[in-house]
Specification:
Pfam family, one: MoCF_biosynth
Protein name: Molybdopterin biosynthesis protein
Shape: globular
Strand content: 25-35%
Pathway: Cofactor biosynthesis; molybdopterin biosynthesis
GO biological process, one term: Mo-molybdopterin cofactor biosynthetic process
Number of strands: 38
Structural class: alpha+beta
Radius of gyration: 34 Å
Keywords: Molybdenum cofactor biosynthesis
Length: 617
């Protein structure tokens, strides 16, 4: 029987073990100044000479002895015959200790008429005003910026001593293919090492990725030994979960020592921490979000402790929109989208699946649920560690509700306005709007009287004033590979939308009209959260048919048999209509260019696009 992990080590202890037993040790190397931007200084840098090296004029004018100007007034000007004309940057001649701007003097009586006494060192840049010879320009541990390069060049610096920190990254797994290759069934594009290398390089660290290594202990041993010989830290991806072909821990133990196998974090629990040749070896789990957590929560702090500057993330306090349960004994890290709605910051958790990389793409922050708690409640104020600038959170437009592929086009057209869309179904969107967890709620809820959306708003938001804005009228239909009709659904496998979605409610309405028991539909309980997910499940052969919009079927290249046209609208609290983010959205929806995009896509009608209804509920 295969065991899962060894006993879990707390996160802080795991980091301490690395820093105590095998901290990475950067080396000092010399680089030409121009190549040092982004690198970290290994020692202080001192000016080779003073800047300026002589007293210089700071203005266009005349250089004078200040003593010679004493007593000068408008009524009794002093005529100076030995003043020297200077321009900005000229060396001050001997015997002069002041510069008078040229506009403050007049040429009279064969000399310069001075009508105001000059102060000693007036308009003069003294020797060493910028920096004195042997004065420190930057300390050790300084991350060199592009503007530092100009200053250091001016101070006579041609070479700088910087920290050289290199990481060797080893992707393992016989199922892996290089990125840029379309994977076949059973294959996976290697992305974890690409992600880790990108992060390390952003910190000024050299990151070298080895060729793909198959699940062969001898090949893994060879790659690990070479990486530990050449680099300061080794990161090996996959092979950490104690599966039947996971050889990483075994090989690390043969070449060195396994210090930790299993850390109390989620995702990322199966991480391996080892030591080879006195250098740390980190075994990343295969799931992308598990790997991301290990990179962010273990590797980054270790790098920071080694002297590489790492800027701490900005933090905010935000109201949690959904209750999150968590296991005692593990620190759980949940990716979030945060934004300011109705005057307060709110944060919504994204999918917690360890393989869902789009959660990372869509996130703008991370919530840490401590190991000693069983979760956090909706409405709690929680600390969010941001992975963007706080300004992006403050300016984000938050949508929650029904999915449509056109939302992605809208987000693209609204750029650089950050847009975050949660596909939680039309009913979920109405409830999010009611709780002020979003700015806008896309919806298409069919009522028994044949109207869309209004009856549900009346039921769930009584006393509120809501404005409905029509995005488009769109076709819903049966998507399949073989032209299956609605009446043929009882004879095929089906993939459904989630409860509370308008598409699910449309399906139930049509089944009820025909007297069809949902239980007779094979796959009725299998749910997807987007139209595209339904279409792609059909294309992959996981199901024979599903219900989705025409544009999703077109994207997937599948047959589409329409069953009806519905009104796809966005609900907005009327009090928010003057919000700049909402105004930008409305301007887009009402634009001719947006109508053109809809008309070029399958299954949309634009006669009602942009029409507003303000409802006092």
């Amino acid at each position: 029987m295969v065991s899962r992990y060894l006993s879990l080590v707390p996160l802080d202890e795991a980091i301490a073990i690395i820093n105590r037993l095998c901290p990475p040790k950067p080396r000092a190397i010399s680089l030409p100044l121009i190549e040092s931007v982004g690198r970290v200084t290994a020692e202080p840098i001192y000016a080779a000479y003073s800047v300026p090296e002589a007293h210089l004029s700071a203005m266009d004018g005349i250089a004078v002895s200040s003593r010679a100007t004493h007593g000068a007034t408008d009524k009794h000007p002093i005529i100076i015959h030995d003043a020297v004309r200077v321009n900005t940057g000229n060396v001050i001649p001997a015997g002069s200790d002041a510069v008078i701007m040229i506009e403050d003097v007049a040429f009279e009586g064969g000399g310069y008429a001075i009508r105001r006494a000059a102060a000693s060192w007036q308009h003069i840049r003294p020797v060493g005003e910028d920096i004195a010879e042997s004065e420190m320009a930057v300390p050790r541990g300084h991350s060199i910026k592009y503007h530092d390069i100009g200053a250091l060049a001016a101070y006579g610096i041609t070479e700088v001593s910087v920290l050289s920190f290199s990481a060797g990254l080893i992707p393992t797994g016989s199922e892996l293919v290089v990125h840029g290759t379309r994977p076949k069934p059973g294959q996976v594009v290697e992305s974890n090492c690409q992600m880790a290398a990108a992060h390390l390089r952003s910190l000024g660290i050299q990151a070298d990725i080895s060729p793909l290594v198959p699940d062969d202990p001898d090949r893994i041993r060879e790659a690990l030994d070479a990486a530990a010989s050449a680099h300061d830290i080794v990161i090996i991806s996959a092979g950490s979960s104690k599966g039947t072909k996971d050889y990483t821990a075994q090989v690390i133990g043969e070449l060195g020592e396994v210090l930790v196998h299993g850390v109390g974090i989620k995702p990322g629990k199966p991480v391996i921490i080892g030591m080879i040749r006195g250098k740390p070896v980190i075994g990343l789990p295969g799931y992308p979000l598990s790997a991301l957590t290990v990179i962010r929560e273990i590797i980054t702090p270790v790098i920071k402790a080694a002297g590489i500057p790492v800027h701490p993330p900005e933090m905010i306090e935000a109201e949690l929109t959904r209750t999150l349960a968590s296991d005692i004994g593990t620190d759980e890290f949940v990716l979030m989208t945060a934004g300011r709605v109705a005057g307060r910051l709110i944060a919504t958790p994204l999918s917690r699946g360890a393989g869902v990389q789009m959660s990372a793409v869509r996130s703008n922050g991370v919530l840490r649920i401590p190991a000693d708690t069983e979760g956090v409640e909706a409405g709690d104020s929680v600390p969010i560690s941001l992975n963007v600038r706080k300004e992006e959170v403050e300016s984000a437009l938050i949508l929650a509700g029904s999915h449509d592929p056109i939302l992605d086009r809208m987000a693209d057209l609204l750029s650089p306005l950050p847009v975050h869309s949660a596909h939680i179904g039309s009913m979920g969107g109405i409830l999010a709007l009611k709780r002020r967890h979003c700015h806008c709620a896309p919806m298409h809820l069919l009522a028994p009287d044949g109207t869309y959306n209004i009856r549900y708003l009346e039921r769930y938001l009584p006393g509120e004033e809501v404005t409905l804005v029509c995005v488009a009228e769109r076709e819903q239909g049966v998507v399949s590979r073989e032209g299956i009709t609605f009446d043929g659904l009882s004879n095929v496998s089906f993939v459904n939308r989630q409860k509370g979605s308008g598409t699910r409610m449309l399906l139930d309405h049509m089944l009820n009209e025909r007297g069809i028991d949902p239980a007779s539909i094979s796959g009725y309980d299998r749910e997807m959260t987007t139209h595209l997910a339904v279409a792609l499940a059909v294309r992959s052969g996981e199901a024979d048919a599903g219900l989705c919009v025409a544009s999703a079927a077109e994207i997937a290249g599948l047959s589409f048999v329409p069953v009806g046209t519905e009104r796809y609208e966005i609900g907005i609290m009327t009090s928010d209509m003057d919000d700049p983010r909402i105004r930008s959205l409305l301007e887009l929806i009402e634009s001719d260019s947006f109508r053109s995009i809809l008309n070029e896509s399958s299954g949309y009608r634009t006669e009602a696009t942009g029409i507003r209804q303000t409802l006092s509920l």
